Amino acid sequence: MPKFTEAVESVGRATLDRLDYVGGLSIGFWSAVRALPTTLPLMGNRYRWKASIVQMLQIGVEAVPMVGLMAMCCGFILALQGASELRRVGAMSLVIPLVAIGFTREVGPLLTAIAVSGRAGAAISAEIGTMMVTEEIDTLKVMAFDPIEFVVAPKLLAGLITIPCLTAVCNVCGIFAGWIFMFFSTHLGLKLYVHEVLESLVLRDVVSGLVKSVAFAVIIVLVGCLEGFSVRGGPEAVGRSTTAAVVKSTFLVIVADMFFTAIFYFTGKH
C-alpha cells in the first residue's frame, strides 16, 4: 500500500510539473505577443528592430546551408525509397507527387523545425541562461526594462519571419533533389519535372506546411527562452538548460505536427 501511494504521488507531481510547464509557455507566449509591437519597424523601438534583424541572421540566414543540404539528402532518400516500390507496379511517375506533396505538407516543416531546434533553440537557451547566471536579467529589471520586451520579443519576431522562409527553402531543395534522382533514373528534364510538381500541388498543401512552420517557430523560441530563464546556478545549469531546450522543443514540435496533421485531415484540408 505505501508503494502504491508513492507511485500515485510521483505521477501526480510529474503531471503537475508538466501542467506548470505548459502554463509557463502560455504565459510567456501572451507576454511576448503583447511586446511584439515594440520590435516592429517604424511603430516600435528601433533598437528592438535592430536586435530582431540580428536574430533573423542567426536563426535564419546562417541556417540556410545546413537546412538546404539536409533537405536535398532527405529529398533524394524519399525519391529513392518511393521509386523502389513504385517501380514494381510501373508507377515511377508517382515519385514526383510523392516528393512534392510529402515535402510541402510534412517533411519540409518538420525537418526545418528539428534543424532550427538543435541550432537556434540551444543558442537561445544558452544566451538567456548566461544572462541569468551573470545577473544581466536582474540588471534589466533594476533599470526598468522588461526582459520579455528586451530579450524574448525580438527572438520571437525573428523566428516567425525566418522559420517559414527556411521551410520554403527546405521544400525547394527537397523537391530539387527529387528531380536529380528522376534525371539519373529516367532522364526526365527539369522543365517537365517542374510542370509535374506544379500539377500535383495545390495551394492548401503549401499553406498547411507554412502554418505548421509558424507554430513550430513559436514552440522553439518559447521553449528556448523558458529554459534559459529557469537557469539557476553556474555554467553546468546553462548546459542542462540547453540540452533540455533541444529535447523538449523537438518533442513538442513532433506532438504539434501530429495535432495539425490530424486537424487538416479531419477538416478535409489534406
Architecture overview:
- The structure is a single chain.
- This protein has 270 residues and is mainly alpha-helical.
- It has one domain.
- It contains nine helices and no strands.
- Helix 3 runs parallel beside helix 6 and helix 6 packs across helix 7.
- The model has no long low-confidence stretch (mean pLDDT 86).
Summarize the SSE layout with pairings.
Layout: H1 2-35, H2 46-59, H3 64-86, H4 95-133, H5 136-142, H6 147-186, H7 190-200, H8 203-229, H9 235-266
* Beta-strand share of residues: under 5%
Distance between the termini: 50 Å
**Gyration radius, to the nearest Å?**
22 Å
Order of helices and strands: HHHHHHHHH
Concise synopsis of the structure shown:
The protein has 270 residues and is mainly α. It contains nine helices and no strands.
What key attributes describe this structure?
84% helix; 270 residues
